[in-house]
Each structure stands twice: as structure tokens, then as C-alpha cells.
Amino acid sequence: MNGEAKNSYGLSTSAWFEYGTTLSLANSTSKQSLGSGSSLTFKANVSGLSLDTIYYFRAVAENSGGQSKGEILVFKTGKSGTVSSVPVSSSPTSTIASPAIVATVAGKALSLEIETKNSEAAPGQIVEYFINYKNNSDKEIKDIAINVTLPREIKFLKSSDGDFSSSDNSLSVKIVSLKAGEGRVLYVQGQVDENALTRENAIVAVTASYVNPTTKEKEDVLGYVVGDIVSRGNQLAAAAIFGEGGILPNTIAEWIILIIVIGALVFLGRKIYVDLERKKVAKSNGPVPSNLPR
After folding, report:
1. d(CA 82, CA 158)
2. What is the pLDDT of residues 5-51, one digit of tens each?
3. What CATH superfamily is the domain 110-242?
4. CATH architecture of the domain formed by 2-100
5. Whether 219 contacts 108, CB under 8 Å
């Protein structure tokens, strides 16, 4: 694992990595003293990892100005101990020490990307994922194995290809052949479980394994998207205000009508208030004073 800490104030800084098979990142590497430079790179090797397993990790940096944690990234161990990582471009956000991890997959024959419009979803909501993959080499790639793993909160509904396994909530797709320069899209649809609890960082991960037609070596590429499971009430409130069919007007005419309605309500409320005040005065003092507003 490789990391970089941006140390804008030149303070003495230390750094380490947190990692694990879940987003709790239960493991960590030893803390390293990096010195006081403005851009401090560091790395760490870990052993004892399980084969053919997805791991999550992030860099952490700390100095007298505070602590900063980098974005959570993903890598997958191979069946023979190799590691596949996700290319990431990350910009520092802290002026104290903001770690930025850069992972590369240079020379890969296949590129892979997963996209979704559902950055957050509520129980019962339909979610959709589009996996784009392309042969970037000048030779045909054969026997590509694609695997899409859904979080436990998302129930698989359908896909444009592949076989679903409920035991590990994953979809397996076998691509017999992908011509040089050819790209395809795999569509996956799911639904958030009705009993799903709210949580952040629900990850949908996709991996592709194949043999590089040029080097004849086995390669793995990995991509993922991160979303939040939100409560149904929060989502409905947001939809009512901002979404289609919401309570806010969408045209000038609707805004004019809304303003007229609000004005009428204000006038009615004022009239009711005045009438109540007049009755109070009449009840306690007899004749109604003439200086009350009408």
C-alpha cells in the first residue's frame, strides 16, 4: 500500500494504514515517522491476507495540528497471492496533513468502471448499476469472468447477463470473447431491502479476471461505487421539496398562484387575530376601543 501526506505547515508527521475485509477497518499497520516535509510519501506491506478476497484500506496521517484520514479504497487479493487495485485520483482537503493514496493498474488490457445514479437509497427503492468494460488492447481477450457483489441490504432483481448466487449476493458473468477495442455495458438492477437499517458506505464491487492476450499473464481489474442507505422518511421529505411532483412550483404561473395563496392566508390569519382581540377587549372592558385595526 502506498500513501502520501500533504503537510502544509511543515510539522513533524507520522502516518499508517488502516485496512480490513469490512469498512470497520479493524487492522492497522505500524505507525511511521515521516519527518516534516511538505509532501511525505510512505508505504507498507501486509501479510497474512486471505486469497481471492476484497479488502478496504485508507491512509491516516497525524501531527500536532490534528489527524486526517484518506478516502477508503479497495484492493482484491488474487488466488495466487497477487493484488489488484483501483486507480484513484485524490486531492488533499486538509491544510494540516491530508493523506492521498494513488493506486495504479498500468498495463491492464481491460478497463472497467461501474456507475449509478443512486448515491443514496431508502428501503424499498429500486437501484440501478451500469458496468462499463472495454478491451484496450489490440488483441482479442477471451474467457473474461466478471463478478458483481452487492451489499447485504440490496436484493438482486435482474441483469442484462449472468447468473446470480443468493449465497454470496453476487452476479457472475462469463464473456467468451471481447474483440480489440470493443466495449460493452452490463446492467444490474436491485432493490433495497424493506428492513434495511440506515448506514453509510454500502459498497457495490465489481471484478473482472482474464488472461492478458499480450503478456499471457492472468490479470484482475476492480471497480466499486459507494452509497448510503437512508431512512424512508428522509428520502420522502427530500423528494417532496426537490423532486418531481414536489410541493414547490415549477413554472412562473404556479409561483404567482402560490404567492396569492400565501397572501390570502396571511390576510385571513390577521383578520382572525384582530377579531379575537376585539372580543377579548369587549368582554373585559365593555365597549370596543375604536383604535383597534380593522
Report:
1. 32
2. 888 788 899 999 999 887 778 899 999 999 988 888 888 988 888 88
3. ntegrin, alpha v. Chain A, domain 4 (2.60.40.1530)
4. Sandwich (2.60)
5. yes
